[in-house]
Design brief:
single chain, 80 residues, alpha/beta, globular
Amino acid sequence: MIQYAGKLYGLELKSYTDDSGFKISLHQAARYAKILKLDLIWLVEFVEYIPEGYREKYEQKYNDKESGVVVKPVFVATGE
């Protein structure tokens, strides 16, 4: 978690491996946010290279139906 300008933000950091790992990360981030009593959490996925189309495919707001939490994924390229 990080506090900025008086507001608390949840951040979950992961290393992208594949689609199934990404889906697990979304659910895990939502569970963490619920425990922390947050409505929103950012899922930061580190990847060496971001292929064309990845941002459009993966950086979509995810609404977890079980927890009611919104997860916002963001990819960070480590090799660019």
